[in-house]
Amino acid sequence: MPSVLLQSPLPLTKTPEIPAPAGARSQRNLAIDVLRGYCIVMMVTSHLATDSLLNSAVHFLRYISGAEGFVFLSGVALGIAHHRRVIRHGLVKAYQLIWRRASIIWLVHVATVFIAIGIDQTIHRYSAIPSLRGVGWPWLLGSTLTLSFQPGEMLNILPLYVFLLLGAPLILELIRRRLTIPLLIASASVFLYTQWHPAFGTWNNPLTGRQAFPAVTWQALFIPGMVIGSNREALHRWVNGPKRRMIIWGIGLLAMLTALVILIPNPLFTVSDHIRWDLFVFQRHPLRFGRVIYFYIEIAAFYFAAQAWIKGRLPRLPIQFLSTLGRNSLYSFLIHLIIAMLLVAIFVPYQTGFMVNLIPILALWVIYWMADHQIGRRIIPN
């Protein structure tokens, strides 16, 4: 396995631009799109109706949320896409495209924060936005532009992607120069250091308190994702080799075992003790090592399960639904943000059990329908 990671997935010399052939089929990995779509579903249900049956169903694996999946799969997708961009556009242009993506997400974050502040100050007070009384607009503008002002809940995730994408070219260059193993060791070392010092590398201000998604911690999901995406072909050959059946059964059994140990408490290993385990092993803020290890085990099993579903004679509707959401991840995030703001602003009375369960279903259908028909794509980025 180490020999796979030591391979150089990208050329060490400048590659001339090669135009894509006309009518070429999309090279997107459908299983990755499906998993990203599932993360969208987890995000929407947890933000709009935490107490709904749908939210409990999609979060049946305790200690795994859409955030971990988004960050890791974004790294995988970036590693795959970067390889193709280098072949098509050349190395420098490929890095420029990454920074362009970071600038788009930065603009989206700044715009959504100021829209939310405007609604908060004029129409409806949002609990996630701290009181701005006595805060001058110059200070607020500067804090928002530098990403240090990150209001809670749904408005604090995009800065993470900006920071990760800004550093992504350096990471990809290390991979290209066959420094993958030292890179992974450095990434793991920084992550382990944050277990003792969670405030290390955070970028926040007194108004919003601690940073929910610090890049120095969450890179433990993003960087390995880029490594996997960059070495996709070598890993594909390894997984599909003579030991494929053993690999799949081994990952599946390990995933079931870890899930059972965590989900089913017993007298000898009471993982349901929130004081002992949630705070020190499986917490998300700050991101703990047990949660990351558990995620890697389960996401591997989910990937093989998604592949089996795609290749098998099973209903296509779930695949179509999830892959559509996954291909339009930023777009889906922004649409869900609009829906959430509207629900809070107009005081939708969905405290009853029926409405609590109906709201996330309707929201997901609206997001899927809009993504499928590309409604508003001229003004809503993806």
Q: Could you characterize the architecture of this molecule?
A:
The protein is mostly helical. The protein folds into three domains: 34-63 and 316-382, no CATH class; 67-236, no CATH class; 240-311. It is built from 16 helices and no strands. Helix 2 packs antiparallel against helix 4, helix 2 packs across helix 14 (317-327) and helix 4 (66-89) packs across helix 9.
Number of helices: 16
* Poorly predicted tracts of residues: 11-25
- What percent of residues are in strands? under 5%
| Radius of gyration, CA atoms, in whole angstroms | 21 Å
What's the count of strands? Answer: 0
Q: How would you sum up the major sheet?
A: none
Q: Kindly report the average pLDDT value.
A: 85
**H-E order:** HHHHHHHHHHHHHHHH
Q: What is the count of structural domains?
A: 3
Blueprint (SSEs and pairs):
Layout: H1 2-5, H2 30-48, H3 53-58, H4 66-89, H5 91-122, H6 137-145, H7 158-176, H8 180-196, H9 215-230, H10 232-239, H11 244-263, H12 274-282, H13 289-311, H14 317-327, H15 329-345, H16 353-373
Helix pairs in contact: 2-4, 2-13, 2-14, 2-15, 2-16, 4-5, 4-9, 5-7, 7-9, 8-9, 11-13, 15-16
Keywords:
globular, 3 domains, mainly alpha
Short description:
By secondary structure, the chain is an all-alpha fold. Helices cover 67% and strands 0% of the residues.
